[in-house]
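Quick one, probably user error.
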């Protein structure tokens, strides 16, 4: 995993557990804010502190993350042309593995929470698609531009991509996964993904 790829992850998972600044907003923004507030409540809950509470804390955070992301949409966009070639069983398997990878990376970042602030700066809605724009203010005073991309599913707006300073999370994964599949095979790629998930 290259350094720029890690950089995207660091700031993505920082922004997802920030202290939020209230602002008037529509449904997509409220969805992002709702999940953010839920995770903040979990990681700052004194009753969940300590190693003996680690498993419960992780379970609660994992549930909150699962509620926010559209796993199938992220999986489809990440595999891109390789998605169409997959059987239904292979798609289900990839969605599960990819979701576990996202959740575990998120959980790793939760431990680094330090009260960063996120300012909700606006949203754009076009039919069933929406973009929520925020700015992250770090403790060093650095401002990071973040865009959550969401798709409406029923009554909910779910995240299918996040862009940090113009760098897309889905595009980064797509490039990395595609490189492995093209160099070897999809079967080999799944073996590597399984090993990575099991190792975490």
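Nope, works fine. Designed sequence:
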């Amino acid at each position: 995993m290259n350094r720029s790829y890690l950089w995207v992850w660091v700031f993505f998972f920082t922004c997802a557990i920030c202290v939020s600044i209230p602002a008037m907003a529509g449904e997509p923004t409220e969805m992002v804010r709702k999940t953010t507030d839920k995770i903040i409540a979990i990681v700052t809950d004194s009753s969940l502190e300590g190693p003996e509470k680690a498993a419960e804390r992780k379970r609660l955070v994992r549930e909150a993350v699962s509620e926010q992301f559209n796993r199938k949409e992220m999986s489809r966009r990440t595999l891109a042309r390789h998605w169409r070639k997959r059987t239904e069983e292979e798609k289900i398997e990839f969605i599960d593995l990819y979701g576990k990878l996202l959740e575990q990376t998120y959980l790793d970042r939760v431990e680094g929470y330090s009260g960063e602030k996120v300012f909700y700066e606006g949203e754009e809605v076009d039919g069933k698609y929406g973009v929520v724009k925020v700015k992250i203010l770090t403790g060093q005073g650095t401002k990071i531009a973040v865009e959550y991309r969401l798709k409406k599913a029923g009554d909910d707006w779910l995240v299918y991509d996040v862009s940090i300073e113009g760098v897309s999370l889905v595009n980064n994964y797509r490039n990395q996964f595609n490189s492995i599949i093209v160099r070897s095979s999809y079967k080999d790629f799944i073996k590597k993904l399984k090993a990575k998930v099991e190792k975490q």
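The chain has a mean pLDDT of 82.
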